[in-house]
């Protein structure tokens, strides 16, 4: 509770040159005297502040001072133990020399009530009594009163019977009559600094030092402590004073404060602030002022607040008043009844007893006593009691009448009028006449600005509280809160002071009123839906109240907190749902503040903190929730989330397991049902491992761990994954069955197993599997290929990749099955690599553009598929610096590097960026490979398995003819694409339609420009007029469409085609040493043509024997059907599913039934195309009837003589066949 605080004194007495050490006021209340450490005393005019006399006579610093009750004697003591006595009127010394009273300094002086003796106390542990007539020690106590510790303060009892002596260790009660110590007790733990008697001698106050800076009250009949210590000071209490009325006490402390206390309730009511440590305090004789001083070298005069009962208004005995104020109404009634019995005409006692009856709500007896008082003698007190009694009975008119008459007895005294008006306001309040009470209070404040504002504020506070309660009951919550806030903020509560008349007449208690105002304001704001304001009001109330008050409103407080806590949780949930984490945390915190045992609030706050990434705080809340309710799954759920966020995954998984166990044994069925949505850790582990194995299916069999430098097989890779933080994080996040369906598991596995593959040209000393098996590559001797391997792994590691692969050392080349699997999978491995690092060992540092194109890496067979399969590629120079300094994450997106690659490889840029493996554009893929070479002859074919999406056995030693032959036969057999048969060069022993070397594909096939569409349409239109031609063309089309696709069997090619028998082969003359011969060839239905070949062609022995054929291989272009090798219309040009798909027969999608107009159109267009030049195969029939292709050094271009001739068309239909070619 607060109090009055003053920093400005009414008057200051200044002249001391050092610390002012003591003060005393003369009985006439006109003068005071002070002493100082400057060895002087000063006599002052108390009213004007003028120094009347400076008194000198001490030879040391003056410490103590006393004035006799009749004002005739002054005594002062100094630090050397000398006492000087002075005349009270003149201020002159009474002895020629100072009295040597003690061997140590004088700490305290006190005249006996009759001024016959002077008591002195000293640091020499003695107290002496001096006769004020002779200034010698008294005969009855010629020996000093000795103690074991220093004497701090001595005080005579009001009767003079006892002398109280405060020493460092005890307070001692000395009976002056018997000369014996009648009581001794330890008042404070260490030093007893000061003491003071109440005027009636019933109580003694003591003050302690800085170890116990409290005031304690002692019952002088038992010397037992009364009530609790008075607290507030922070330093030693150097002096205590009590006013003459016995109602107020003042204390001076080294903490620079003087505090004013009310004795009736031991409440501090004011603080007077000073700049320095205080040494003394005393009241003026009339009690209206305080005088204090100390190390500020001055004495300050302060006004004492008027809080007592004006005897002119309410005259009551001290004993009855105490009973009134303390609430002992039965005792008060008894005391007043005794007064009436003593004097039956004591009208004041009747009026006072009426007040007691009113306090007891006995309104009839209250009215009887009031009427009796007035009947004996009308008085202000009598009519006030009558007005209060009528008010209690609810008689508003009679109440007003009584108060109106009471004004006649105020004698126009302003204070009495003011008090009466306030009483009337209170009566109107109790009659619910709020408007009239407000008007009267406002009028009082306006017309009497100099009135007792503190009393007005107390009444106004009561008025506001009553108005607030009424508004609250009427559901006007905002209005109620406004009234109650005004009451709380009033100066009544800030001062915490109340006139004793209000306490006596109405039992008012500011503490209870303050408590009620706060409670009702909390209720009003809560009912108004202003939860945060209600909580602020509640916290303010709790923070500013004491333990006793909190205990008295415990039931209300618990109910309020429970209601607020529930609302906080609801509103917190809404805030959390809206991702307003700060608000949610604040609301959950408020709920916890209100109910620290609410485990649900801790769970919710933990959740909010986790979402705000406050993992440690979230964990603390989760742990607290578990402590409060260890059987609930919710605390463990929150703990799991917090631990998971803090990356303490092992602990998180354990918490999750416990959570599942709590769900399994939950007593509520609805809670147990929640278990069905959660997946157990073993199930989650199975799903994660499945995803990992799936990811590794497209990865090399062995990978280098870039962190450890160890080569790992797949089992080790899985084990490494399972022991990683990534795996544990994923496992801790995979808690529900829905998580298994999401792509997170696949994504995490994919990211973790991202790998970097090396593409390079093999050099001399490359590391093999046995060189690095079970060894840390980083610890090997960095020479040759090992240095390359180490640099590669470091770059991959520094780029954030866990795994790397290098073909030289990650394959067991002694294991044929593994080698075959590797060769057949390598394209997919590079395709699925996160990054392919290309090491250009022959490109020196800081090379310019063109160095990549000239690198041997571009000429190697294996690097072709590595280049086109890889999606992300980065080129490094010999010193492992970036090629061209290009720091882009993918050199396939670098315009400069891509241009160089296109120029160097002849591969289209689109194919380099988004290569489509498979049979599409097979002839172009063969051309790109034709410029490359391999160390092992079979590898030129094996390195293309992935490019064409083919799986074939790997048989090193079969020679390149067979390896390439098997590849090409698979291309033709599986696709029906005969463009792989378009080559120039030497025939293969595998099949004469296939080349002996892939270099035969270096020359692109001749492309005959197609006829313009207008010419085609013109020709078709002219042909359509001849019905026979149309019919024959349709038959020809159907005949061609019925043929099977080209196929291989036992190295024999079965080629559907149109054959043109050769009628004549004639060698042209030429130099004898030339290895090639040119022949003029005449074939039925074709124009004559020349063929150049290494082979020697013999003219048939008999003209009717068909030894040679020129054939037109069947292709879909002729039939105007889409090329089946074209990739599907999909963005994913590298779909793995498309790598190995077996295409349909090239003619499977030929039209089976078309409208006549469409079929005739297509057939006639076929005639037009057959009339164009075409690439022909020259075949020689063998003994078994099979044919062998005659290789030529240039492409053989033939042309039909006349496709519009009916005869020629009929001959052509007879020439459609499938030829078997060796």
TrEMBL record:
The keyword Metal-binding does not apply. Gene3D superfamilies: Tetratricopeptide repeat domain, YVTN repeat-like/Quinoprotein amine dehydrogenase. WD repeats lie at residues 13-54, 55-96, 99-134, 230-271, 271-302. Residues 1141-1156 have a biased composition (Low complexity). Keywords: Repeat, WD repeat. It holds the Pfam family HET. Residues 757-842 form the Heterokaryon incompatibility domain. Residues 1125-1158 are annotated as: Disordered. It comes from the Eukaryota. This is Heterokaryon incompatibility domain-containing protein. It comes from Suillus luteus UH-Slu-Lm8-n1.
């Amino acid at each position: 509770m607060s109090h009055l605080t003053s920093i400005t004194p009414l008057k200051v007495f200044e002249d001391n040159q050092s610390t002012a050490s003591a003060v005393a006021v003369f009985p006439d209340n006109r003068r005071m005297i002070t002493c100082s450490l400057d060895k002087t005393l000063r006599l002052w005019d108390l009213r004007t502040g003028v120094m009347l006399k400076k008194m000198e006579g001490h030879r040391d610093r003056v410490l103590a001072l006393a004035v006799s009750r009749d004002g005739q004697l002054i005594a002062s003591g100094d630090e050397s133990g000398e006492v000087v006595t002075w005349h009270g009127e003149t201020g002159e010394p009474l002895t020629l020399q100072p009295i040597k009273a003690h061997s140590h300094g004088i700490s305290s002086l006190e005249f006996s009530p009759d001024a016959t003796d002077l008591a002195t106390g000293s640091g020499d542990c003695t107290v002496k009594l001096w006769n004020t007539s002779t200034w010698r020690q008294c005969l009855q106590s010629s020996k000093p009163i000795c103690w074991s510790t220093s004497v701090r303060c001595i005080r005579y009892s009001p009767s003079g019977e006892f002398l109280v002596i405060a020493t460092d260790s005890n307070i001692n009660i000395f009976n002056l009559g018997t000369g014996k110590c009648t009581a001794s007790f330890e008042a404070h733990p260490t030093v007893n600094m000061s003491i003071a008697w109440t005027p009636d001698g019933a109580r003694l106050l003591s003050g302690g030092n800085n170890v116990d800076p409290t005031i304690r009250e002692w019952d002088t009949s038992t010397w037992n402590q009364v009530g609790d210590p008075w607290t507030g000071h922070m330093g030693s209490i150097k002096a205590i004073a009590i006013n003459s009325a016995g109602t107020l006490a003042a204390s001076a402390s080294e903490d620079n404060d003087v505090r004013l206390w009310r004795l009736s309730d031991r409440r501090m009511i004011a603080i007077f602030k000073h700049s320095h440590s205080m040494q003394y305090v005393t009241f003026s004789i009339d009690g209206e002022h305080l005088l204090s001083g100390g190390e500020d070298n001055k004495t300050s005069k302060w006004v004492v607040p008027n809080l007592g009962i004006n005897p002119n208004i309410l005259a009551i005995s001290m004993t009855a008043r105490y009973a009134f104020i303390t609430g002992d109404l039965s005792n008060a009634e008894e005391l007043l009844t005794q007064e009436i019995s003593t004097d039956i005409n004591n009208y004041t006692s009747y009026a006072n007893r009426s007040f007691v009856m009113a306090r007891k709500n006995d309104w009839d007896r209250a009215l009887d006593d009031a009427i009796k008082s007035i009947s004996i003698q009308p008085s202000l007190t009598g009519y006030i009691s009558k007005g209060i009694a009528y008010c209690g009975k609810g008689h508003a008119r009679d109440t007003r009448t009584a108060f109106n008459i009471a004004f006649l007895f105020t004698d126009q005294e302003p204070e009495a009028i003011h008090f009466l008006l306030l009483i009337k306001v209170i009566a109107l309040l109790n009659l619910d006449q709020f408007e009239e009470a407000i008007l009267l209070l406002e009028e009082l404040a306006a017309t009497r600005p100099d009135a007792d504002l503190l009393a007005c504020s107390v009444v106004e506070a009561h008025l506001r509280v009553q108005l607030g309660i009424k508004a609250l009951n009427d559901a006007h919550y905002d209005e109620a809160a406004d009234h109650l806030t005004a009451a709380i903020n009033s100066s009544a509560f800030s001062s915490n002071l109340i006139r004793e008349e209000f306490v006596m007449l109405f039992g008012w208690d500011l503490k209870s009123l303050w408590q009620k105002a706060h409670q009702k304001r909390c209720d009003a704001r809560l009912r108004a839906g202003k939860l945060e304001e209600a909580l602020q009001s509640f916290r303010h109330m709790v923070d500013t109240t004491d333990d006793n008050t909190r205990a008295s409103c415990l039931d209300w407080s618990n109910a309020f907190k429970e209601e607020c806590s529930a609302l906080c949780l609801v509103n917190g949930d809404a805030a959390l749902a809206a991702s307003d984490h700060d608000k949610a945390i604040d609301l959950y915190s408020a709920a916890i503040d209100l109910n620290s045992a609410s485990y649900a609030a801790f769970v919710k706050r933990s959740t909010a903190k986790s979402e705000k990434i406050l993992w440690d705080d979230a964990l603390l809340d989760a742990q607290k929730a578990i402590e409060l309710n260890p059987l609930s799954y919710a605390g463990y759920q929150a703990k799991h989330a917090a631990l998971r966020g803090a990356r303490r995954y092992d602990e998180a998984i354990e918490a999750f397991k416990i959570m599942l166990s709590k769900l399994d044994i939950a007593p509520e069925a609805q809670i147990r049902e929640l278990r069905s949505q959660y997946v157990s850790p073993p199930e989650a582990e199975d799903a994660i491992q499945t995803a990992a194995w799936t990811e590794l299916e497209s990865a090399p069999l062995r990978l280098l761990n870039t962190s450890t430098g160890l080569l790992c097989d797949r089992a080790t890779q899985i084990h490494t994954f399972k022991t990683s933080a990534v795996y544990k994080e994923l496992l801790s996040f995979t808690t529900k069955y829905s998580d298994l369906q999401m792509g997170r598991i696949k994504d995490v596995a994919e990211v973790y197993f991202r790998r970097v593959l090396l593409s390079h040209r093999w050099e001399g000393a490359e590391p093999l599997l046995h060189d690095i098996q079970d060894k840390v590559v980083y610890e090997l001797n960095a020479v040759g290929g090992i240095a390359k391997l180490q640099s590669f792994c470091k770059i991959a590691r520094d780029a954030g990749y866990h795994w790397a692969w290098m073909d030289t050392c990650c394959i067991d080349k002694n294991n044929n099955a593994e080698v075959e699997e590797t060769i057949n999978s390598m394209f997919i491995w590079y395709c699925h690599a996160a990054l392919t690092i290309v090491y250009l060992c022959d490109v020196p540092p800081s090379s310019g553009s063109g160095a990549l194109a000239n690198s041997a890496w571009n000429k190697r067979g294996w690097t072709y598929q590595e280049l086109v399969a890889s999606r992300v590629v980065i080129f490094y120079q010999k010193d492992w610096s970036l090629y061209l300094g290009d720091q882009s994450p993918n050199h396939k997106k670098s315009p400069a590097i891509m241009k160089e690659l296109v120029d160097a490889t002849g591969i289209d840029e689109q194919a380099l960026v988004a290569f489509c493996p498979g049979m599409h554009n097979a002839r172009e893929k063969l051309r790109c490979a034709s410029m490359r070479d391999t160390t092992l002859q079979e590898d030129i074919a094996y390195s293309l398995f992935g490019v064409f999406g083919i799986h074939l056995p790997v048989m090193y030693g079969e020679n390149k003819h067979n390896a390439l032959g098997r590849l090409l036969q698979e291309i033709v057999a599986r696709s029906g694409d005969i463009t792989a048969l378009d080559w120039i060069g030497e025939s293969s022993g595998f099949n004469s339609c296939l080349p002996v070397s892939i270099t035969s594909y270096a020359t692109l096939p001749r492309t005959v420009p197609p006829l313009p569409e207008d010419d085609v349409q013109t020709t078709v239109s002219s042909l359509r007029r001849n019905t026979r031609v149309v019919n024959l063309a349709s038959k020809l089309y159907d005949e061609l469409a019925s043929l099977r696709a080209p196929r291989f069997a036992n190295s024999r090619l079965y080629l559907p085609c149109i054959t043109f028998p050769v009628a004549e082969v004639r060698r042209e003359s030429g130099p004898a040493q030339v290895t090639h011969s040119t022949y003029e060839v005449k074939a039925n239905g074709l124009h004559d043509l020349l063929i150049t070949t290494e082979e020697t062609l013999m003219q048939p022995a008999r003209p009717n024997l068909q030894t040679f054929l020129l054939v037109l291989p069947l292709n879909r272009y002729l039939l105007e059907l889409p090329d089946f090798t074209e990739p599907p219309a999909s963005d994913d040009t590298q779909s793995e599913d498309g790598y190995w798909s077996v295409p349909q027969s090239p003619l499977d999608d030929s039209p089976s039934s078309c409208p006549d107009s469409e079929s005739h159109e297509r057939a006639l267009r076929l005639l037009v195309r057959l009339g164009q030049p075409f690439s022909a195969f020259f075949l020689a029939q063998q003994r078994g009837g099979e044919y062998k292709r005659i290789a030529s050094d240039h492409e053989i271009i033939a042309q039909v003589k006349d496709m519009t001739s009916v005869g020629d068309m009929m001959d052509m239909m007879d020439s459609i066949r499938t030829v078997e070619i060796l």
